[in-house]
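User: I'm preparing a small set of examples for a lab meeting where we compare how different chains pack in three dimensions. I only have the primary sequence for this one, and I'd like the structure in token form so I can line it up with the others. Please keep the answer compact; I'll paste it straight into my notes.
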Amino acid sequence: MTDDQYFAGTKVAIAKEKAAGALRKCAVPVQVVLLVDSAQGIIDNGGLLYFYEVDFEEQGPYSDFVEAYRAIGAEEAATLLERSIRLFPFLDPHLHELKRQRWLDQIQEDENHEFNDLSDKLIGHKAVFPKLKEYMARHWEHFGAT
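Assistant: Understood. Below is the structure token output for the 146-residue chain.
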């Protein structure tokens, strides 16, 4: 799959989400592509700190992102993200924006904190976008122009 095909497929997925009115109303392959594409795009631009600072529309548990990474076959990236979620010292961090931000502020400058190591490993992870393209190609019926 070329980059142009990937970007065109992503645009189709975004249009399908908009037409459905909610990501969860879309077909699973559309959900998977949009979850991984948005997460990895944010992580590549600012690490896990940026990712966790975002309050996503229809915020579900962060495990939704982990499952999406696994669905495309990016197991190592999924495990890194999963480990970062478990570092939060409270349950359901997706539900607690203020607590999440306070904790991130506390650990942000600690270069030795595991969170920062996980972030460094996820930024630009070489497997994610190739696996995402392969996944999209396998499910092209959801991403071809309509």
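A couple of notes for your slides: The CA atoms of residues 62 and 94 lie 6 Å apart. The chain is about 65% helix and 0% strand.

User: Perfect, thanks.
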